[in-house]
Design brief:
- Keywords: Coiled coil, Disulfide bond, Glycoprotein, Secreted, Signal.
- By secondary structure, the chain is α+β, with helices and mostly antiparallel strands.
- The chain has a domain of 195 residues: Alpha-Beta Complex (Gamma Fibrinogen, Chain A, domain 1).
- 57% of the residues lie in helices and 13% in strands.
- It contains 7 helices and 13 strands.
- A 7-stranded antiparallel β-sheet has the order 4-5-3-13-6-7-10. A two-stranded antiparallel sheet has the order 1-2. It has a two-stranded antiparallel ribbon with strand order 8-9.
- β4 and β5 form a beta hairpin.
- The structure holds 2-acetamido-2-deoxy-beta-D-glucopyranose (7 copies).
- One 2-acetamido-2-deoxy-beta-D-glucopyranose binds next to α3.
């Protein structure tokens, strides 16, 4: 082999990667055979060298790692040191701060002490001044007590005078007490006189009581006499003798006690012209829807609205001929009357029938004869009429109802003067049998015929 080629290959091997050189050389067959052995040797050497290099690198790396580790530890230690130092610095700073505060407080206290001291000094000065004042006051007191001593002497003299004054007062008081005693005696005497007066009063009272009881006795006797005289009247009446056949004659307009044959005494209004009022409607203040007993005995208010009672009418009209006068009034103020010359009522046994009315005269017209003559009296609880219904219950009040009829003076009082289907106060012949009319004034009166 040409030595130059060997040199060139070696140069290439040295200058380039051995493996590349190996490939390059292998490509040229002729040369390869020559350098193969040498190249293999080189390759072996190179591989050994590579191995030792590897070892060297690894060792180096290990050393570096150790180094880094130790550096890290150093850094950590330093960090810790720094930290500790920081803490120390902080602690020191705090200490300095607290010392500053203490120093400040101390200086404040010192300032305070200074101020207090100056105040104490002021007080001391004041005390000193006070002491001076006290001393001067003490002197003044001493002077005053001297004065007082002098005054004490004067006071003793005054006391003496006062005692003599009190003595005088005592004397006056004693004489006053004597006077009081005298007054007391007088008072007692007066009391004795009073007691005497009271006794006299009691005596008088007793006498009055006695007189009163005598009065009562008198009254009782009077009552007895009254009863007796009433009984006597009744007896006489029962014997058929007329006590006063004409009770309203010659008396003024007022309510009188009436005594008539066959009737016990009763009260009735006289109209001042001989008429006795037996029924009156003026204001609707009295309810006329009454039962049989009430129509029999009478009801209402003799100075206002009332009905005298059927039993009385029966007894009066049976005792002799009587006139009946009916006065009527409408809500418009117009008035009319109708008079009958022979009014007579039957007994309760026959239901108080309208036995007679006689001859009618007057402007109101006759609303009795045609339908009511000989009819029995009917009330809400006693249906004696000729109607299928109870007329008293249907029209109101009580009357000598037939198939009800043309008149009903005890009907419902309507202040407005308007009635409904005969339920008001009606007297047909006077208001043209218009039963929407309801009268607002009625007065029924009787008197003995030969007046
Ligand atoms: C006045 O009288 C009373 C008793 O009457 C007596 O106790 C008192 O000492 C008397 N005073 C004088 C000042 O006489
Ligand atoms: C009066 O008459 C009544 C009944 O008529 C009778 O009860 C009474 O006892 C009589 N009184 C005297 C005192 O007669
Ligand atoms: C009627 O009254 C007059 C006067 O008040 C009186 O003089 C006369 O006697 C009376 N007549 C009767 C019957 O009572
Ligand atoms: C009594 O009534 C009659 C009849 O209505 C009448 O003429 C007379 O004036 C009345 N008397 C009095 C005092 O009112
Ligand atoms: C009638 O009416 C009066 C008064 O309301 C009552 O006291 C009496 O018991 C009545 N009589 C009858 C029989 O209903
Ligand atoms: C009776 O009627 C009159 C006249 O309406 C009235 O002034 C009086 O108060 C009535 N009295 C009684 C007790 O209702
Ligand atoms: C292909 C290649 O490089 N061939 C070479 C091989 O070696 C001989 C001798 O040195 C050269 O003449 C060729 O050119």
């Amino acid at each position: 082999m040409d030595p130059r080629v060997i040199v060139a290959v070696l140069s290439v091997l040295v200058l380039t990667d051995l493996t590349v050189a190996y490939e390059v050389i292998k490509g040229n067959g002729s040369c390869f055979e020559v350098v193969k052995t040498m190249l293999d040797h080189f390759m072996e050497l190179k591989s050994d060298a590579d191995k030792s290099n590897e070892l060297k690198y690894q060792t180096e790396l290990q050393i570096k790692d150790e180094l880094i580790k130790s550096k890290d530890e150093q850094i950590k230690a330093l960090k810790d040191l720094n930290k500790r130092n920081d803490e120390q610095i902080k602690a020191l700073t705090d200490l300095i701060k607290s010392n500053d505060a203490r120093i400040r407080a101390q200086s404040e206290i010192e300032e305070l002490i200074r101020i207090k001291n100056s105040e104490i000094e002021k007080k001391n000065n004041e005390i000193e001044r006070k002491e001076t004042l006290i001393n001067s006051l003490k002197n003044q007191i001493n002077e005053k007590s001297e004065d007082l001593k002098k005054a004490g002497k004067e006071k003793d003299e005054f006391n003496k005078k006062l005692l003599s004054c009190l003595d005088n007062i005592n004397k006056t008081k004693n004489s006053l007490m004597e006077k009081e005693k005298e007054i007391q005696e007088k008072k007692e005497e007066i009391k004795r006189k009073d007691d005497l007066l009271n006794e006299k009063d009691a005596e008088i009272q007793e006498k009055i009581e006695q007189a009163k009881s005598k009065d009562f006795q008198n009254k009782d006797l009077t009552n007895q006499i009254n009863v007796l005289s009433q009984n006597l009247t009744i007896t006489i009446e029962k014997l058929g003798k007329s006590v006063d056949p004409n009770p309203c004659k010659n008396v003024s307009k007022d309510i009188y006690q009436i005594r008539l044959p066959g009737v016990s005494a009763f009260e009735a209004p006289c109209n001042g012209s001989g008429w006795m009022v037996i029924q009156r409607r003026i204001d609707g203040s009295v309810d006329f829807n009454r039962n049989w007993t009430e129509y029999r005995d009478g009801f209402g208010n003799l100075t206002g609205e009332f009905f005298i009672g059927l039993e009385k009418l029966h007894l009066i009209t049976q005792s002799g001929q009587h006139e009946l006068l009916i006065r009527l009034g409408k809500v418009d103020g117009s008035t009319a009357f109708e008079k009958y010359d022979n009014f007579r009522i039957g007994s309760e046994k026959d239901s108080y029938p309208l036995e007679s009315v006689g001859i009618p005269t007057g402007g109101a017209g006759d609303s009795l004869t045609k339908h009511h003559l000989n009819m029995k009296f009917s009330t809400i609880d006693r249906d004696n009429d000729e109607d299928a219904f109870n007329c008293a219950r249907r029209l109101g009040g009580g009357w000598w109802f037939n198939i009800c009829g043309h008149s009903s003076l005890n009907g419902r009082f309507n202040k407005d003067g308007k009635g409904k289907s005969k339920n008001g106060i009606i007297w047909g012949s006077w208001h043209r049998y218009d039963y929407t009319v309801s009268l607002t004034f009625v007065e029924m009166m009787i008197r003995p015929k030969p007046f």
